[in-house]
Design a protein that fits this description.
It is a single chain. The chain has helices spanning about 1-50, 80-90, 100-115, 120-135, 140-155, 160-170, 185-190, 220-235, 250-255, 270-275, 295-319; strands at about 70, 175-180, 195-200, 205, 210-215, 245, 260-265, 280. By secondary structure, it is of the alpha/beta class. A 6-stranded parallel β-sheet has the order 3-2-1-6-7-8, with helices on both faces. Strands 4-5 form a two-stranded antiparallel ribbon. It is elongated. Residues about 5-10 and about 290-319 have low confidence and may be disordered.
């Protein structure tokens, strides 16, 4: 019996250890349960906060037929200026001489490097274009414009901006180009991109022949805003639900008209203006000015210079 008596304490000790283990497990379970409960309460609070917080509205709004989008063309939808590319195409077809081509090339190079419109350059380009097309039929220039688009413009469309325009189209909204370029050129580009149409500078024609004059003034700056306002009225649009896109501070009047203004590849003044007013900003360039413009602009300038040199050389051989 003595031997059995010595065994009993050992059994009691094992039982005590089991009790201790059980008590420890119960205490741990209680603590973990409290921790889990706190975590569930915090998660529920976060969910409730997320549900009550105002969600960012879908844009563009699908099916909102009283909304539309207005896109500037030069350096917003397309790299460079449409009128300069058009001029190169006309030179190729012997509409004017080598010195005019050199001026077009210089203006386009400046535009690519500076990234902004020079009013004097733009006015000079428009005056030159008007004098060049004077006496030609509108139908002739439209046909040539289709060819020039394929030759010089098609590869210069910014994919990012094209995607923004497509989003509006997919939402069932109309999309318009708004540009100082000739309305015929703008209409060709809009049609090729599948857009609704274009607002552009209107050159006077009589019996289908250009007179060399404008109807009013170039569609630039405040004139763009007036054109958008007039079209919105005619189309029954609510401008507060519309969007506008541009790269230039000259288009601030147009951008300020709509409820959803976007600065696309903005110049310095527009970038600052957009940030001050918390406008949305998109930059599809791989660089800008000097460091900003960098290799892409240099490559573009080189290609332009090469194309100009080739055109001049061909002109000499023909002579």
């Amino acid at each position: 019996m003595a031997a059995l008596g010595w065994l009993t304490p050992r059994r009691r000790s094992a039982t005590a250890r089991s009790v201790l283990a059980g008590e420890a497990a119960a205490e741990a379970a209680r603590k973990s349960s409290l921790q889990l409960e706190r975590e569930r309460e915090e998660a529920a609070a976060e969910t409730a906060a997320a549900e009550t917080a105002p969600a960012e509205p879908e844009f563009p709004v699908v099916g909102d037929v009283r909304a539309a989008a207005f896109f500037d063309l030069d350096n917003t939808v397309m790299q460079g200026a449409a009128i300069f590319h058009f001029g190169r195409g006309l030179y190729k077809r012997k509409f004017f001489q080598r010195r005019e081509l050199a001026r077009f090339a210089w203006q386009q190079a400046w535009f690519r490097l500076a990234g902004v419109e020079d009013p004097e350059h733009m006015q000079d380009a428009r005056d030159s274009a008007l004098s060049i097309v004077q006496g030609h039929r509108v139908s002739e220039l439209m046909s040539i414009g289709e060819e020039i688009y394929d030759e010089y413009m098609a590869d210069r469309i910014w994919p990012g901006t094209r995607g923004l325009a497509q989003a509006h189209l997919d939402a069932g909204q109309k999309v318009w180009l708004v540009t100082a370029a000739p309305v015929e050129t703008a209409t060709i580009i809009a049609r090729r991109l599948g857009l609704t149409g274009a607002l552009g500078t209107v050159a006077e024609s009589v019996d289908g022949v250009y007179t060399g004059k404008l109807v009013g003034e170039p569609l630039h700056g405040p004139a763009k805003a007036e054109a958008v306002r007039a079209l919105a009225s005619a189309e029954g649009l609510d401008l507060s639900r519309c969007a506008a896109y541009s790269d230039s501070h000259n288009d601030i009047p147009m951008l300020s008209l709509v409820g959803h203004p976007y600065a696309i590849n903005p110049d310095t003044k527009l970038r600052k203006h957009a940030k001050d007013r918390e406008w949305r900003l998109r930059d599809y360039r791989t660089g800008r000015k000097a460091a900003k413009v960098g290799i892409p602009a240099a490559a573009g300038l080189g290609a332009l210079a090469g194309g100009t040199a080739a055109a001049v050389a061909l002109h000499r051989r023909r002579r």
